[in-house]
Amino acid sequence: MPEFRTVRGMRDFLPDEARIMKYVESKARGVAELYGYKEVMTPLVESYELLATKAGEEVRLRMFSFKDLGGRMIALRPEFTPSIARLVATTLRNEPKPFRLFCLGSLYRYDEPQRGRYREFWQSDFELVGSDKPEADAEIVLLTNSLMNGAGLKNCVFKVGHVGVIRGVLSEEKLEDKVQNAVLQLMDKKQYEDALRLVKDSGISEKCLALLQNLVNLKGNDVFEITKKMKEHVGHYEKAMAAADNLSSILRLIVESGCKIEMRVEAGFARGLEYYTGMIFEVYVPELDVALSGGGRYDKLVELFGGESTPAVGVANGIDRIMLAMQEQKVKLDEAGEKRVVVISVGEETKAEALRISCMLRNSNITVEFEVMGRKMAKALEDADRRKMDCAVIVGKRELEQGAVVLKDLKKREQTTVGIAELAKTIRG
Predict the structure, then answer these.
(1) Structural domains in the chain plus CATH codes
(2) Residue 178: which residues within 8 A CB-CB, separation 6 or more?
(3) Residue 28 bridge partners (DSSP)
(4) How many Å apart are CA 351 and CA 335, to the nearest integer?
(5) Spatial CB neighbours of 64, under 8 Å, sequence gap ≥ 6
(6) CA distance 49 to 320
(7) Across the strands, what pairs with 103?
(8) pLDDT digits 0-9 by tens, 359-389
(9) Predicted structure pTM score
């Protein structure tokens, strides 16, 4: 018999891991509720053209794409934003703006599997569509911080930049979009020397090349000092100057909101997706070298898909990466303290009544596992201990005759006889 394994880059999540994943998902849904984002559900499979448009060469090369039986080129979604932009351009085109949309699910990219990077991964996605104001960008950063805090993570750092600064310089130097995209792709991979070499080979002046080198080197935690220096460097480039001003306005709103967020501005920061037009950011913790979240402004994607000119900003949060960060930081889950109960029948003649009691407790929203292995009492209680159950309800003939059962507290090693009518209330304490 062959030994079947998961496909490379895919994973099984065992109960404890799945529990943490669902916990992070619940925190993402909670943030969506707090900020007024409405959930939408989009297909796992979309047309290749939709997903490839403005995705960036790196993403295009790593999409799971194939022809369906009708000969149409389709792909598994590598991200959520194109699907949301499609929705806004079509089904939602006549609805009043802004849209605050939220979605959650699995995504697929043919990456080289490594810690924190798999071919199947999970994200929660928040998109604020219809506003070009700095307060919209600030909101996306603030809600991302709310999710990190909700997950119990410490020492998060938001790396922030603005695509419009570098693009503003390159545009005014007459570099075509294709070259700009290639330069930003290299910067995203931190291949700055290659990026600057490509710019030089495109015929840019030494003076401009020196300016770009200065921008690449310009980074720090004093966010307003860095944005001030950015403006000084790009003062002769109108579009780049406007971008630096926009970034400064966004950062000021975030800081003055009173929310404590550690931010680091990097003037040469880029992200691999080509559709970004404004502020961009990623979130890191010291224990991992991959971003937990990433997002930014994209003002032209909806229009590209046939909709009206529609500004938008969004963020994707890595559910499984946040889970990994929580495990690294040994975060304790603040789950509801609902007790977990095992119901054990002493003999054959009490099994039906034990099942009835189990149903009664579940109807009272108490988690119940029924002993189905036919174990002796000592073994059944030993198994309940191993699986960290809180208490055991022991259903015996003698107690049933009195309308009662034995309730054993497995943590305190205490037991008492309790009337069946009061059982749920007694378990809850």
Answers:
(1) 15-328 (3.30.930.10), 340-428 (3.40.50.800)
(2) none
(3) none
(4) 32
(5) 75, 76, 78, 108, 109, 110, 119
(6) 28
(7) 125
(8) 999 999 899 999 999 999 999 999 999 988 9
(9) 0.89
